[in-house]
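Kindly inspect this one:
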Amino acid sequence: MDVLEYWSPTIDWSHFKQGSVSDDAWHLFEQLVQLSHAHGHWVEAVRQIRLSPPQRPLYSESKYMSGKRRHEWRREIEQAEGHMHRAAYLGAETIARLCPLAEAAGEGLADWTLCAALCLSIKPFPDHTRGRFKASAFTAFDADAELAGDPPDIYRRWLRNAGLVDNRAA
């Protein structure tokens, strides 16, 4: 998870309860939560950089210096976008690694429900860059309470909690 070397979220894991989720699935879930927070951070970083183009100096500058200043600004944007896309890619890869564990557990069990709800809420496939990783950027998670119900109901609740859908619409 090399993207976490550039920015790593501070998560209080004491607010997370594993419940009946298997250890392997829980470990992957924790990775996904970290990557989701990192993705959100880099989305905001890209937005902030784009909103603050380089200031023109008070003195007149050469065409070369003006181009260099714009080039450096674009390079900052590209670096932040690279981290954002890498976090999304690793998040999608983590979900892909979770799916076989869920299938082995069997339909209706905690691992399967967790994987199905994550896949529905994030939708990282086939294009991870469009994944809704904000839905899995949890700050607290009680597996037994969160995974009660059917995956469609769970993912709608997660989308509402993340502010990705209007409360009236879902």
User: Anything to note?
Assistant: The radius of gyration is 19 Å.
